[in-house]
Amino acid sequence: MSNIGTSGDPQRDPRRGTRDDDFRTPLKRARALGSGKGGTDHWWWQRVTAVVLAVLTAWLVGLLVSMVGADLAQARAAIARPWNAILLAALVIAMFWHAKLGLQVVIEDYVHERLAEILLKLLVIFACAAGALASLYAIARIAVLAPIA
Amino acid sequence: MATRERPLSPHLQVYRWQITMTMSILHRATGVILVAGAFALAWWLLALAAGGEAYADAAECLASPLGQLFLFGFTLSLVYHLLNGIRHLLWDAGWGFEIPEFYASGWAVAGLTVVFTLLIWLVASASGQPGAGA
Known about the structure:
The structure holds 2 protein chains of 2 kinds. Chain A has helices at about 25-30, 40-65, 70-80, 80-110, 115-145. Chain A is mostly helical. In chain B, about 30% of the residues are buried. Chain B has a single domain (about 20-125), classed as Up-down Bundle (3 helical TM bundles of succinate and fumarate reductases). By secondary structure, chain B is mostly helical. Chain B contains 4 helices and no strands. Chain B has helices spanning about 20-50, 50-65, 65-90, 100-125. The longest helix of chain B has about 30 residues, at about 20-50. Chain B is elongated. Classes of the chains: A mainly alpha, B mainly alpha. The interface of A and B includes residues 75 and 132 of A.
């Protein structure tokens, strides 16, 4: 127990309240103070997106290889086919999510300046969200524009 | 009391080379390369949606020597990251934790990466100009 409350900040010592009118339980005061934070969320969603991508990237490689030499109309028609559009939308969501999770860890490992770390992590979130949204927009537009063969 | 330097863990350079260390850093390196590939895919999809000159420019860009080099590097990184990712998932499931198994799976991933990458480009070349969608 010697580790608890060593920060010297009585507000963050879960063992006791600092005021007589603090009726929160010790558990309530301890929550969200530890290093757990997100718990296993980062690890878990990295695996969930990895499993999705393991299946869908193999499918995408097959689709793209089959599209070699296709002209604009043929390429659009291939992407516009219902299951291709749906699976491709699922792929870009999983892909940019997985990219965000991976880049975040790289930044946390190598960038030791706090401000640069936060700015880079913001940039990664914004860029990956933009990449996913742009891809979904393009897929939707292709699916609407291309005549169904 | 005399101040002493805090003890440091041994530096990376003192370790004998093992395939596991190379596989590990390559997984991260290819992951970062694949981010560029992810944005290239988004860019290509936008060009495909826009059509006309935008698509012609994108197709020309991908068909250029630099574009083909990028696509090849992307294919190589994708196959490696995918195969080594499956290796990671199997570890997560508790499989392959014996030292000889680490080495065997590492070499298997390295070999299969080359095989699959060449196979993809062979099939792509056979079915037209090399380069997906270009």
